[in-house]
């Protein structure tokens, strides 16, 4: 069995120019399979080793799982002519665990899009979803 939750994570990308590497913004809380989740985004990268070249994005579990929670995290951004998507699977065991991509996409890909950098816009929308796999039918370890 499956349960899922999806959201549009809107990032005012033009305003992130003032953030430091390691500064984060997060989404509202969504529910899936009885757990609370949110998207964490580091618009200028998660750590200094990335040299401010990448946008990082993660799925965090906020609730305390009684047992391992097996989840698929899907994230994509659509800005013509850019279409970028990734997905991963992870087993969450503790509240506050986050998994995703420290290098989801290069910042220069977004910087190059006039639609994003226009003074009247500046917003980027990421479609994000968590699909929770329930039961042992998928052969995942607990």
Mean pLDDT: 86
- Report the strand count: 9
Portion in helices: under 10%
Helices and strands, in N-to-C order?
EEEEEEEEHHE
Q: Kindly name the structural category.
A: mainly beta
Q: How many strands, what sense, and barrel or not for the largest sheet?
A: 5 strands, antiparallel
Radius of gyration: 16 Å
Runs in which pLDDT lies below 50 for 5 or more consecutive residues are none
User: In percent, how much strand structure appears in the residues?
Assistant: over 45%
Tertiary shape:
globular
Summed up, the helix count is 2
End-to-end gap: 15 Å
What is the structure about, briefly put?
This protein is mainly beta and 142 residues long.
Protein described:
It is a single chain. The chain is mostly beta strands. The protein contains 2 helices and 9 strands. The protein has helices at 107-111, 114-117; strands at residues 2-12, 25-26, 30-32, 35-42, 54-61, 69-79, 82-92, 98-106, 123-133. The strands form 2 sheets. Strands 2, 3, 4, 5 and 8 form a 5-stranded antiparallel β-sheet that branches. The chain has a 4-stranded antiparallel β-sheet with strand order 1-9-6-7. The longest helix has 5 residues, at 107-111. The radius of gyration is 16 Å and the shape is globular. The model has no long low-confidence stretch (mean pLDDT 86).
